[in-house]
Specification:
5 helices; 57% helix; mainly alpha; 434 Repressor (Amino-terminal Domain)
Length: 82
């Protein structure tokens, strides 16, 4: 494979996939005894959207992912780590 300008270095590891991110968020929410409605009110998002994210059907945008990670007490890095 030839090296192309702007190519990602081979030391880069892919971030977690949608299902893994969703699972981490669901686990963190449940560990804090929060309901979907609790997070809906605090994070300013719909319960349906949170459900899609937790199921892996949707990936949160950067701002929302950072907001959720902060709400659950961990870093964005921890959320998307492989």
């Amino acid at each position: 494979m030839s090296k192309q300008a702007g190519a990602i270095p081979q030391t880069f590891t892919e971030p977690a996939d949608a299902a893994c991110i969703g699972s981490r968020l669901r686990t963190a929410r449940r560990a804090r005894n929060l309901t979907l409605r609790d997070v809906e009110a605090t994070a300013g998002m719909s319960k349906a959207h949170l459900c899609r994210i937790e199921s892996g059907a949707s990936v949160p945008g950067l701002r929302l992912a950072a907001r959720l990670a902060s709400l659950y007490g961990f870093s964005l890095d921890a959320l998307v780590a492989p």
